[in-house]
Amino acid sequence: MKNFTYTRATSIKDAARRPEKSLLIAGGTNLVDRMKVFLDQPTQIIDISRLDLKKIENTGNGLRLGALVTNTQVADNLEVRKNYPILSRAILAGASQQIRNVATVGGNLMQRTRCPYYYDTAFGCNKRQPGSGCPAATGINRMHAILGASDTCIAVNPSDMCVALSALDAVVEVEGVKGRRQIPFSDFHRLPGNQPERDTTLGDNEIITAVILPANINAQSGVYLKLRDRASYSFALISVAAILDIDNNKVRNARIALGGVAHKPWRSKEAEQFLIGKSVDESVFQQAADLALRNAQPLEHNKFKVEMSKRAIRRALMVSAKGGGVA
Ligand code: SF4
After folding, report:
1. What are the start-end ranges of the H helices in the chain?
2. How many domains does the chain have?
3. Residue having the nearest C-alpha atom to atom 3 of ligand 1
């Protein structure tokens, strides 16, 4: 690890005004890993962990999760568990207790891909160094994207929490030198396009201050289903967050988000629209799953993800239609 200076931000503006080549640290669960392998070599680390962003508040318009609330606090919060259970389940599926105790809401949104070539500086990597190539495209790409990838990058977003937040239509509140703004969750993370080095639409002089869960979203029947190589903590091969609102055996509203398949949490709007007004029926859910994966472009080693995603969507929808719970 290279030498760097350490300072503490005393205000949000202070953190947002950060100089070039400096990085913010909160829980540090991803940043420290990256610094150890020389992925990030900041000249200055700015500690934001003492800023006043640690509250969970019901604002009347929704539940506001401060950016420095820990993953444990979110997962254990009674209102989250009652009204947004997929968020709690996704967080509990995502990391060990020790990591959840220090990892923050904001940090979870900012974590970077776990593509092994990105972490290995012996290889080129367009995300790490634009223009240096994508060895995953012709290498081992079992964990990589099947939707929304580009010629420059086929990495996936590693977060579980963000898949649930996508399905919940959360809003990201950010603040910078030019003031405060809100970003719909589906616009916060980017597809790689020809700028894979940029994961999000956060401005260079902005920081995340909160994530807001909308009120009255009727998400109690939500299901989070994560499929991975081992039962213990590991990144998703694929995951599904599904929420059905059923009225008289007909689908009134549907929300489906996928993880482990794209550079961002992947919301399947086409499948959701298809489901509205349809009867609760496994064959209908199968058709929705087929639609969700209609444009999948699997790679040499991850063709299995297409069928796996379809089966997971069908199963998650079946469980949600019965009121939710563990799939
Ligand atoms: Fe780098 Fe993206 Fe290719 Fe992985 S998939 S090697 S992160 S460019």
Report:
1. 12-16, 31-36, 71-76, 78-83, 85-94, 97-102, 105-110, 116-119, 161-167, 185-188, 269-275, 282-292, 304-321
2. 1
3. 134
